[in-house]
Amino acid sequence: MDFRFTKEQEKFRQEVRGFLEEELRQGNFEPSCDAWIQGYSPEFTRKVAQKGWIGLTWPEEYGGQGHSNVDRFILTEEMLRYGAPAACHWFADRQIGGSILRYGTEEQKKELLPKILRGEAYIGLGMSEPEAGSDLAAVKTRATEDGDDYILDGQKMWTSCGMFMNYIYLVARTDPEAPKHRGISEFVVDVSLPGITITPTIDITGSQAWAEVFFDGMRIPKKCLIGEKNRGFYQIVNQLAYERAGLERLMANYPLFDAIIKFAKETKRMGKSLSQDRLIRYKLAQLQVEFEIGRLLTYRVALVIDKGSTPTVEAAMAKAYSTTFEQHLASTAMEILGLYGQVTAGSKWVPILGMAPHSYLGSKGYSLQAGASEVLRNIVAERGLGLSGKL
Amino acid sequence: MDFAFSEEQEMLKKMARDFLSDKCPKTLVKEMEEDEKGYSPELWQEMADLGWMGLVFPEKYGGSNMTFLDLAVLLEEMGRACLSEPFFSTVILGGLPILDAGSEKQKQEYLPKIAGGKAIFTLALTEPSAQYNPSSIAVKAIAENDDFIISGTKLFVPNAHIADYLLCVVRTSQQARAEEGVTIFIVDAKGPGISYTVLKTIANDKLCEVVFDKVRVSKENILGQLDQGWSVVQRIVERAAVAKCCEMVGGMQKVLEMTVDYAKERKQFDRPIGSFQIIQHYCSNMATDVDGSRFGTYQAAWMLSEGLPGTKEVAIAKAWIGEASERVIGFAHQIHGAIGVTMDHDLQFYTRRLKAAQLTFGGADFYREIVAQEMEL
After folding, report:
1. Pair (A108, A86) in one structural domain
2. Minimal C-alpha gap between B234 and chain A (Å)
3. Which of A275, A280, A281 is nearest residue B369 as measured by Cβ atoms?
4. B176: domain CATH number?
5. A255 and A220 share a domain?
6. pTM score
7. Predicted ipTM of the assembly
8. Hey, are the CB atoms on B260 and A385 less than 8 Å from each other?
9. Which pLDDT value is given to residue A240?
């Protein structure tokens, strides 16, 4: 047992901080909540790529750095702490690169991995559909074989990175006759090919970080298929564990945590700092306790991955826990701000850049994306505790 | 970073679990709750023979020179078994403070006795004010030649009625700062002027009122320095809080296992209740609370074991586990249904003990305030 980071890891953390401090100093970004999923900066992503910080855990033979997942969590923890705009590369780095490494052909690896590593492949996540949310295996988008190609028809929703992507990762039905889990395949597709229409989804915060994607007879070469035809669902289950695994589930609104603590210390009411008020001390300390426990539950996921296991149960547990924390943080910040809590960014009188209302509204989606908390609890119960509907 | 036990710790854990399943069945736990002494001297001696009491003492004091983290492994298993022996009070509240702050002479005198199972210790810290802060230490010791005379009442002292020695925290001088003027004495528990009343508590865990009526103690029995005892007390409280967390993690893990097993067996509406999603989700929440408590607790235990300053980590662990254990017990009862609230069922042992453990050595509010201070609020 050892709850410390190694000296090299501490040094690496300082290096990441140094980089982010310098970017801040140069005014290249402003810390903001949800920047990992809503902050698109090709320039920032290029710099991160130059540092070698995309594909940190990938094997060296494919241009990665062969680092541990704990190292990657240190990197992402700092990106999140600073609210850095890392959305262009986040998904490719987190899960699609790993999927290609695991299931892709040598040709796909040679084509796609270097682009991801250079910070030039912005890969959107095309999973959800109007009738396939938690029940992902219900996807209806069809990929029909036609000579050397597949023809795509259908619709995706909530495609992360949808308005910025140059590639889309998607799951589509390749065998409509098979039982639903056994007729699905994975693809990575260049979105510059004809037959695709992308329109933004405006979420409750006003963000356009997600999109609806329509495929109308879109012809894609067969080499876009990742892994085995009709085995896609089983490949995804693995990928989803990684999608859920990260600190972004705990720290998406970390800049708000920093800001509300600072606000409580600096704001005086009746001659006393808010942070001297017993109730507010209680609330902020409780958030800190919840945060620290969530951090341990999440670093445990990295340790499981580094031991060579897929963190299905651990990631499900950490994500369900963490999104609850984020929602608690956002609503507590709103309470502390009182009437000011409702004033949004850009308005006269707005406190702490309007992070609180943005996060409060946005966090309603945290417990839905990448596995609704109910689905995650099913996973913990079934895979972790041996409970199921078929007892 | 590594959250797993070492191979040796896994072996220690297995050995402790096997031993306690065999020697400390719930029939014994129940018997000891009703027993006047509250522990089994035979089992106590067997534990000493296994080297448990001296686990972390250096070899020259009859110990095995293992770490506090190793001790944490044992404590977890003791919590799982609802062990009633006075291990916590003797080792955590007596032995380790002497190892920390005692003179060489005191160490040589007391530690081998503890390691051999020949002396039971406890700590007389809290008073009727029932607080863990320095200003709550009001029982006085008045200097008289080479002695001190202690008078007053200590409350919530575990196992005092069977103790051979008490570490008694008293005020030896009035100073502007409450932290100054606090002294710890090692007191012969069977000496004249000391009387005990065992309190009736939910866990039947033999918390006592201890009344000191002009009890004479030599200044040679001061543990540490005269008037400078508060920093020693702080370390004791910190370590005791973590040790309690370890016991609680053991209890919570067992409650989770019992509950999941029961959910798989118990049938209603012609199917096991564990096949219903609401029950599955309750169990999933329990597992999350148990794991969170485990990592928080072992993080703090590891800090202390490594000799690192762990005030914040201890506070986080104890603040968290108080509420987490409350939720775990709540779900456990809801899933067990009415059978779980009978005295014939094992669950009630954990319900009563976990609640008592939440309250002792600082509850969630106490530690949230420490977290607030650590955050510089």
Report:
1. yes
2. 21
3. A281
4. 2.40.110.10
5. no
6. 0.97
7. 0.96
8. yes
9. 86
